[in-house]
Amino acid sequence: MKRHHQVLVIGGGPAGSAAAHTLARHGVDVGLIDKAVFPRDKLCGGLLTLRSKKVYQRIFEQPWDTIINHVSHGVKFLHQGRLLNEVVDFSELFFTRRLDFDHFLLDQAIGRGAAVYLGDAVVSLDIREKTCHLCSGEALTFDTLIGADGVNSLVAKTLFGQFFDSSRVAFALEMEVDRARHPDRVDDPEIHFGLAHWGYGWVFPKKDSLTVGIGGLHAKNPELKKGFHGFLAARFGSVPEGRIKGHYLPFGDYRKVPGRRNVLLCGDAAGLVDPITGEGIAFAMLSGLYAAEAIIEASARGGADVLPLYQTRYREISRAFDHANRLRTLLFPSASQRLFLQVLPKSRTLPRKHLELMADKLQYGDYSRYLMIQALKAMAKRLVHPLNRHHQRSDSHEP
Ligand SMILES: Cc1cc2nc3c(=O)[nH]c(=O)nc-3n(C[C@H](O)[C@H](O)[C@H](O)COP(=O)(O)OP(=O)(O)OC[C@H]3O[C@@H](n4cnc5c(N)ncnc54)[C@H](O)[C@@H]3O)c2cc1C
Question: Between these two residues, 345 and 384, which has the higher pLDDT value?
């Protein structure tokens, strides 16, 4: 006999666990399937912003301290190895290992009563028959399905014919660099500009390692691996030992309609990675929460359509992404990058604004207005003082 769950979640990452935890907490019969056995790793920088912390605390009950591996209070911005600017006294940036973080979240969902099926991949879906077929031959049926199965989402492919749009997706490469072999002190994360088109490089501190990566729009970076080798060699003296791994990330190309009828998409499966910062964990958890809340509300209303209820909540995320996507078309082209790299070293507020954005203390609308003012000031200065522009400090006139 096929097993049945009121809600079936595919994927036990932050999106799936957030959804399963919320549903189970409200007494909904929920099953979660993941092809991996946990703890399992996921290629990721593991940066958790204050936004992530806020979202986490809305959903999960346990304090997350045990899975926080490193805490920073600042960030360094660099271009071709040269420090452009830094913040040293910001509130908090947290770093985790996804191996620990995702396991911790899934355990909390299980603790709340979610049934889990691990180590068994969903190989096909029959949306009409409301049935998931697993690699083991088992089949599970559902009333509502949540696709939280990451960027290569089988659920998204089943609904829309493709995982993602390959002309708009990003690709990233990462490796763990052993701190014992490279003992230079790194307390704060580094963001490296000029390494990838429509993207950047990063060095994120963990307790025993540095997570080093590079990412950008796939279509604009055909030589990303070569660029990564160059970056590693410049940053560490030679390419460190270790495995370089690659992974797609949606980077702003989100689903305008995140599902169909009784099937909802969350997290990377819905394309919810910030188009400028590359942050995805917070939006994965938030969309998982919203999908679960929509299902709970639909049930309370005697079986109302679930997708419109999800879309109402989802709009909060998609509006911010629309703003960010518009801003990105102004920020990422080469001419604006040059202007940005001129303004950044001279500005006290610009790096801080970027951190405030990631901490959810500043919204994209206000950030865009701030950047416009800075850009106009920089251009005006070049027009008014063409000869002595190198000696000007744009800070002195900042609001
Ligand atoms: C290199 C890189 C660095 C990043 N760094 C950061 C960062 O520092 N901070 C940040 O906030 N975001 C970062 N991101 C983005 C972040 O990793 C994702 O947005 C986040 O993992 C999305 O969570 P999710 O739950 O939607 O999907 P995932 O975490 O990908 O989880 C999907 C789950 O579905 C399972 N699954 C997939 N297919 C099937 C199937 N057919 N059957 C059963 N199970 C299935 C998988 O095993 C997996 O466990 C980074 C991404 C990349 C690629």
Answer: 345
Q: Is the CB of 34 under 6 A from ligand 1?
A: yes
Q: Which of 293, 378, 309, 299 is nearest to 343 (CA)?
A: 378
Domains in the chain, ordered, with CATH?
3-69+96-163+252-324 (3.50.50.60), 170-249 (3.30.9.10), 332-397 (no CATH)
The per-residue pLDDT for 335 is 84
pTM of the model: 0.94
**Ligand 1 proximity of 274 Cβ (cutoff 6 Å):** no
How do residues 363-383 score in pLDDT, each as one tens digit? 999 998 998 888 788 778 777
Which residue has a Cα nearest atom 39 of ligand 1?
149
346 lines ligand 1 (CB under 6 A): no
Interstrand relation of 30-34 and 82-87 (parallel, antiparallel or unpaired): unpaired
% residues pLDDT > 90 (the chain)? 82
CA dihedral sign, ordered 230, 172, 281, 13: negative
Exposure on the CB side of residue 195, measured as CA atoms within 13 A: 34
Which residue owns the Cα nearest ligand 1 atom 38?
Answer: 149
CB of 214 closer than 6 angstroms to any ligand 1 atom: no
**Residue-level pLDDT at 145:** 98
Pairing assessment for the beta strands 263-265 and 190-193 based on DSSP bridges: unpaired
Pocket lining: 174 vs ligand 1, CB cutoff 6 Å: yes
The number of angstroms, rounded, from the C-alpha of 349 to the middle of its chain's C-alpha atoms is 24
Question: How many residues are recorded in the chain?
Answer: 399
**CA–CA separation, 340 and 328 (whole Å):** 12
Tell me what the pLDDT averaged over the chain comes to: 93
For residue 386, what pLDDT is reported?
55
Query: How far, in Å, from the CA of 268 to the mean position of ligand 1?
Result: 6
Region 295-300: mean pLDDT is 98
Q: Can you state the percent helix, strand and coil of the chain, rounding each to 5?
A: 40, 25, 35
Position in ligand 1 atom list of the atom nearest CA 204: 8
